[in-house]
């Protein structure tokens, strides 16, 4: 139990033991059969549904602990589980089970003039450390994705979601045991001491191969600054939508409201809307009225305030703020060139969208904007591994090495080369 071990005097010893167990589990897991992994995943989903009442009861305790604190409403939303969300968690695990097993897949193959046959083949990464806050569903998503990709995983949840995460983790272990898969393949750190995070960032004596942070800006920044192992991370989701002169106004209104207000606390929520100056006279006010009518606070550039005097004037900080709340900054720009310039200046390279009917505008947006996810005529809230058909995701990576965008089962693998010969020697 989390509370039982929370006072452990030697965090390093505890964490190193977890690392050893994970590394030991990773080896047989790396060549476990697809059938065994899928059996474990489906058993996990069954256990989550069977434990729904217990999971919700534990989640209610977590929510009671944060009641009356200064936690943002968006973070409370991330923490909150409902019957629907628990069911979606189980469905997500089943979707991962239904995915093609990436381990052993031949990515490419070619023959050399000397007769050597070379193959590039997917292999597990090994042991993945996942550090997250507020989102108990990450316990299920990360555990299931890592298992499918043949990796062991060490999960460290925040103190705010500890009871919920523990209840979910118990279901994952139940599934592992049911399938005869090593139970230490998915471990949940049993302490809330921040020293456990530091131990993971140091790599647990070489046990951890990759760290994935899921949480607020301060957590991700700490991981990126202190980690001694590779990191899949995004610092924040400063997502933009550009409404071009060629945009269908009714479509634009629906998209911007969904992108901002569907769930304000997720990293795919739009934070800045850019409107082409050419249609500011016809499109801007209807867009602002629609957002305001949905309960969104608007912070606008001078041109926006001129159109709608009641709007709060945006400051320079607004253009680089991830609100994670019902707040959006709006600016008028000089066409696609102005939109690209603004995005290049302020974007975190997470997700951007263009609403336009002009194919030349769309092509330029897709070519010149360098973010992990680009959308045309669709909400930025689709920036999600589940919506990409990955079953779930471990996070959205905005770097340019190895994994970028939603990190699913394929992104949780590396590769090795297999070279077949017939007695060749090198001259």
TrEMBL record:
It is found in: Cytoplasm. CDD domains: ALDH_F18-19_ProA-GPR (cd07079). Pfam families: Aldedh (PF00171). It comes from the Bacteria. One of its GO terms (cellular component) is cytoplasm. Its main location: cytoplasm. Keywords: Amino-acid biosynthesis, Cytoplasm, NADP, Oxidoreductase, Proline biosynthesis. Catalyzes the NADPH-dependent reduction of L-glutamate 5-phosphate into L-glutamate 5-semialdehyde and phosphate. The product spontaneously undergoes cyclization to form 1-pyrroline-5-carboxylate. Belongs to the gamma-glutamyl phosphate reductase family. This is Gamma-glutamyl phosphate reductase. It comes from Rhizobium grahamii. The lineage of its organism: Bacteria, Pseudomonadati, Pseudomonadota, Alphaproteobacteria, Hyphomicrobiales. The gene is proA.
